Amino acid sequence: MAAILLSALFLPAWELDAQEPPQDAPAKPADPKQKPAKPNQDTATQNAPDQPKWDPLRAEKDLEVGQYYMKRGDYDAAIDRFNDAIEAKPGFAIPYRWLGEAQEKKGLKKKALKAYQRYLDLVPHADDAEKIRKKIEKLQREIDKESK
User: Fold this and answer.
1) 75 lies in a domain?
2) C-beta separation of 80 from 38 below 8 A
3) Are 56 and 88 in contact (CB under 8 A)?
């Protein structure tokens, strides 16, 4: 009995070929309606519609990846990740701070102002609250100057 089991384990590879699918199956044609993905945008969570809305672990990971993109200077991808973190955990203040910074570096002053303000709304006594208030004042002056 043991010999039969051992021989079954060591069957030559050519005997297993019958289980593989045929190699000459036609390839599926590319979908002409499908648009190519935009460069420099991370859409990891947007491609998965089954993602739960409230997911604090995902928010933490999105924040971490967004900070990585900030270090690389890829502000579009960072903004996407910070927005994903906000969606996964809406009361989470830190992504708003980072979102404001990314938007400010991108030149989106009004959006950065809103993100910084939301950060302070969530944590008015944050350690960096005074620094953020100064950024808000600076952005407001720049916006006012541009609108004149």
Assistant:
1) yes
2) no
3) yes
∠ CA(91), CA(94), CA(96), 5° rounding? 75
CB contact at 8 A, 85 and 63? yes
CB count within 10 Å of CB 31 equals 7
Number of domains present in the structure of the chain: 1
Instruction: Summarize pLDDT for 44-72 with one digit per residue, the tens.
Output: 555 555 555 778 899 999 999 999 999 99
d(CA 128, CA 118): 14
Q: Tell me the CA end-to-end span of the chain in Å, nearest whole number.
A: 93
pTM equals: 0.65
**pLDDT tens-digit map of 100-119:** 999 999 999 999 999 999 99
What domain range is 88 assigned to? Answer: 49-148
Give yes or no for a contact between 68 and 82, defined as CB atoms under 8 angstroms apart.
no
Please tell me the distance from the alpha carbon of residue 73 to that of residue 93, in angstroms, as a whole number. Answer: 22
Please report which helix (H) or strand (E) contains residue 38, including its range: none
